[in-house]
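User: Run a structure prediction on this.
Assistant: Running it now.
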Amino acid sequence: MDFARPMQVVSPTLDGDVLTVLAGAEEAFSGRRIHQLVGHGSEPGIRRAAERLVHQGIVLRHQAGRANLYRLNRQHVSAEAIELLAEARAQLISWLREAIGSWEVAPRCAALFGSVARRQAGSDSDLDLFIVRPAGVDEDSRPWTEQLGSLQRSATAWTGNDSRIIELAEGELEQAKPLLSNVLEEGVELFGTLHALRSAIGGDGR
C-alpha cells in the first residue's frame, strides 16, 4: 500500500489525491491550496480532478470572490468509505495494537517505525515493527515465535507491504543505540511505552 497516497488503492489518478486532502479537513480549499497540499501534479490538473469529483457529487464547490473552493460532501453515500481509506494508516495502527494487545506473552514494548510511521511509505516500502522481548522469555519459545510469525503475516496481508520485525531482548538494548534513536524519533507506540529505550541510550534519547 502507498501510505503517502492511500487512495491509489482505488484511484491511481489525481482524483484520489484530491480526495485524500479533502477527507482530512473540515474546511474548503481552493484548487491552488489543494495543489500545494498534494505536492505533485500540476495546478490545472488538480482543478480538473476537483471538477470531476464535483460532477460525481462527492465534492462540493462554492465560490468565494473569484476563487472556487472545494470540500468533501460528507453526506454522500461514499464519503465514509473515502474517509476510512484516507485514514488507512490510523486503521493499521489500531489493528496492530489490538493484535499485540491480545498476545499470550506480552512484549516489553512494541512500536511502528520507518517510512510507514513517517507517512512516507510507498507500495514497495517495508512495514517496520520494533519489538522488545521481555526478560525471562527465550527467543525460541514456541508461544513467542508463533506470535511474531502471526503478526508478520497479518501485517503483510493488511497492507500488501512486506512486514519486517526487528526483535531485541531487554538486555540487548544498549548495544543497538543507532536503531533505538530512530525508533524514538519516529516510532508510534503499539504496546507499552518507549521509556525503557530512552533509558538504554542515555536518558533524553540523544
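The longest helix spans residues 142-159.
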